[in-house]
Design brief:
The protein is of the alpha/beta class. The chain is built from 16 helices and five strands. It has two domains: about 140 residues, Response regulator (Rossmann fold, 3-Layer(aba) Sandwich); about 190 residues, Hypothetical protein af1432 (Orthogonal Bundle), CATH 1.10.3210.10. Helix 4 links the parallel strand 4 and strand 5. The structure holds fe (ii) ion.
């Protein structure tokens, strides 16, 4: 019953006595009820219930073939979602029968012989409860929907912020932002190949763009220096994993925890020659090892805006594979070889934009 009018409630009468059914129909119609259905054959109750979905059932207890208890048992199986008012019609006044009926799902009783004013009042009361129940249910559903929507909005804006933050960190190196997008797709695909489940792959996809966030803390003259860095500058540059991890540390979010781990370990190398901690082999978290490979692959296969050097995928994979077991995890290199068709497809869909074109977007009109 979605309407607010009690008179619109659907009432189903199940009673083997045709006389009783006729009297109820007449009285209920006289009281203004518009949707009255009935059967004298309780075996049809299930079919009728499913078709009509009544708001109230007037149910005789004593019937041939399937009695009122049997009908209530059936209704329990059929209707699992909503509260269903059942008004039991009975001549039996023994408490044991009434208790059994209540236990079986009856909500109220009408005693034979019926007193019709009382019957109409009880029907109205029960429909009113049903109506309120429906309203509360509808209200709760709306609330749940709203909470869901707000949660999704929050989650979206959180992810957007993370993505924009990683773009900010990458901007000087890769103004199109495509490096981190391609790389995060590679990471996710590679993680899947390494046996991670869907949630973990999603996590590395979302977290990996933050891998170089620590470069925010590196002075410009070092970060943008076109020549090789001297040992002192290199030392400063090598602080970026720690700076990034520090920026992201202390979060309860699984995403930021993974991002922190990636920041901290993406420059560690399989043979222990990396930094900042010189971790070796599987002591380096898998996410750090995956990002190390994907970062290298994308850097080799795309022209850096300032030097324009790039190689094709075959050469890039060969170059990376030549460092399998030294710089990179051999298992990851094998997995990478398997998924190269997918990697190439991702790359083809996300080409770098022309650097000059990107910069021109930000020039004032007329210049
Ligand atoms: Fe880095």
């Amino acid at each position: 019953m979605t309407t607010r009018n009690i008179e619109d409630g659907k009432i189903l009468i199940i009673d083997d006595e045709p006389g009783n059914v006729r009297v109820f129909e007449r009285v209920l119609k006289g009281a203004g009820f518009k949707n009255i259905f009935s059967t004298t054959d309780s075996l049809k109750a299930e079919e009728m219930y499913k078709e009509i979905r009544p708001d109230l059932i007037l149910l005789d207890l004593k019937m041939p073939h399937l009695d009122g208890f049997g009908v209530m048992e059936m209704l329990k199986q059929v209707e699992t979602e909503t509260y269903l008012p059942i008004l039991v019609l009975t001549a039996q006044r023994e408490p044991s029968t009434r208790i059994r009926a209540l236990e079986s799902g009856a909500k109220d009783f009408l005693s034979k012989p019926f007193e019709m004013t009382e019957a109409v009042t009880r029907v109205k009361n029960m429909l009113e409860v049903r109506l309120l129940h429906n309203e509360i249910r509808e209200h709760n559903r709306n609330l749940e929907r709203k909470v869901q929507e707000r949660t999704e909005e929050l989650e979206e804006s959180r992810l957007e912020l993370i993505h924009r933050l990683s773009r900010a960190a990458e901007y000087r190196d890769h103004p199109s932002g495509r490096h981190i997008i391609r790389m995060s797709h590679y990471c996710s695909r590679l993680a899947q190949e390494m046996g991670w489940n869907r949630d973990q792959c999603e996590l590395i996809y979302l977290a990996s763009p933050l891998y170089d966030i620590g470069k925010i803390g590196i002075p410009d003259h070092i970060l943008s220096k076109p020549e090789h860095l001297n040992p002192q500058e290199l030392e400063v540059m090598r602080l970026h994993p720690i700076i990034g991890a520090e920026i992201l540390s202390g979060s309860d979010s699984a995403l930021l925890q993974m991002a922190e781990s990636i920041c901290r370990t993406h420059r560690e190398r399989w043979d222990g020659s990396g930094y900042p901690c010189g971790l070796k082999g599987e002591a380096i978290p898998l996410e750090g090892r995956i990002v190390a490979v994907c970062d290298e692959l994308d850097k080799l296969t795309n022209a850096h805006p300032y030097d324009g050097v790039k190689v094709d995928f075959e050469d890039a994979v060969n170059a990376i594979a030549s460092k399998s077991g030294t710089l990179f995890d051999p298992r990851i290199i094998e997995a990478l070889k398997h998924i190269m068709p997918d990697i190439k497809e991702i790359a083809a869909q996300l080409p770098d934009e022309d650097h000059e074109k990107i910069i021109s977007r930000y020039r004032p009109v007329g210049n």
